[in-house]
Write a structure and sequence with these properties.
By secondary structure, the chain is mainly alpha-helical. The chain contains 18 helices and no strands. Among the domains are: 138 residues, Tetratricopeptide repeat domain (Serine Threonine Protein Phosphatase 5, Tetratricopeptide repeat, Alpha Horseshoe), CATH 1.25.40.10; 70 residues, no CATH class. α7 runs antiparallel to α8, α10 packs antiparallel against α11 and α14 packs antiparallel against α15. It is globular and about 55 Å long.
């Protein structure tokens, strides 16, 4: 999974922001409005579980019932936007995001996520207009809350990847990276690492990512960002170090299976182990934008079978990846390699 986005595609998954971080507070707001419309088994815990498991349609049904009772509730609109964003239904995501921001214009997070919805729309439509809206929302999110690290990180990436005509610029990007570093050393090193990678200076990037390992963050997300970086190099020893550091923070995180499977394949030491981990990931992981994509896991599994000279099984995995993401070049190249 790569953090690299299209120049005007700024709807990247935010690794700093947990998808379910505000579900509980949201539901405390909407429970009075929904209690009469929902069965007795309805609970905060079950809704949070459904969202984090990727059961977005069920969450949408509950939120729509709440919205019918309280149509001006900005939290309901916000989380409907989040659900539709995960489903890649950008029109609905934008609509609900605009409603949320209109109802509560002072919320930095609302502007951040509306910016992401605009960014995804800009990517799909190749729209400069939506790209400009993306930048405006990210900038507003930072203005409203200068300590909003995900907003600063998204704004930094926009400045780096957008052309000057859309407000991009390396200096602007560096200023955001420095602001992040002043607030949080770990996130600052990650931001500066991304900056140097974008400028094509791998030695400077490597120094920043190595510093993250030295700082030993107590959250799992930074280690997965490191894993993505070391996977792109590839650097097997550092990749394994990032994976095991993540496991010490949260041994139950299903993403560990993905990275362990990829690492085992790259090492070519135990392809059976690579297969087990990748299949475990596909069996457990929901389709979340802050997780490695299921299509990517299918591609890696296809490569495992290709290495084992099992073309039929390999073709099944490459085709499964293309069903999920028809534009995946690596899956099409895999099919060509095995003569499909």
């Amino acid at each position: 999974m790569s953090r690299k986005s299209n120049i005007i595609a700024l709807a990247r998954p935010a690794k700093l922001l947990c998808c379910g971080f505000a579900v509980t507070s949201l539901l405390l707001l909407i429970l009075p409005a929904t209690r009469g419309a929902q069965p007795e088994s309805f609970s905060v815990a079950s809704i949070k579980e459904k969202f984090e498991l990727g059961q977005y349609q069920e969450v949408i049904a509950l939120l729509e019932a709440a919205r019918a009772q309280e149509p001006q509730n900005s939290s309901v609109a916000f989380w409907l936007m989040r659900c539709y964003y995960e489903l890649d239904r950008v029109d609905e995501a934008v609509s609900y995001g605009e409603q949320a921001v209109k109802s509560e214009p002072s919320s930095s997070d609302y502007h951040l996520w509306l910016g992401r919805a605009y960014g995804r729309t800009a990517e799909k439509r190749q729209s400069f207009s939506f790209a400009r809206k993306t930048r405006a929302e990210f900038e507003t999110a930072v203005e409203l809350n200068p300590s909003n690290l995900p907003a600063r990180r998204d704004l930094m990436e926009f400045y780096l990847e957008a052309p000057w005509i859309l407000g991009g610029g390396k200096d602007k990007g560096w200023n955001q990276a420095e602001a992040i570093a002043a607030l949080d050393p770990v996130e600052g090193s990650l931001a500066r690492g991304f900056y140097w990678r974008h400028l094509g200076k791998p030695d400077s990037a490597e120094a920043e990512y190595a510093r993250v390992l030295e700082l030993k963050p107590h959250r799992v997300e930074p280690y997965f960002e490191l894993a993505d970086y070391y996977l792109s190099r590839p650097d097997g020893s550092r990749l394994d170090a990032a994976i095991e550091s993540a496991a010490r923070v949260d041994a139950q995180d299903c993403r560990l299976d993905y990275y362990r499977g990829v690492s085992a394949f790259l090492a070519r030491k135990d392809l059976g182990n690579a297969e087990r981990h990748l299949r475990a990931y596909l069996g457990k992981a929901s389709q979340r934008r802050d997780f490695p994509s299921r299509a990517s896991a299918h591609v890696w599994l296809g490569r495992v079978y290709e290495e084992q000279a099992q073309p039929r099984l390999s073709a099944e995995q490459y085709k499964a990846a293309l069903e999920l993401e028809p534009g995946r070049r690596d899956a099409r190249e895999g099919l060509r390699r095995i003569g499909q």
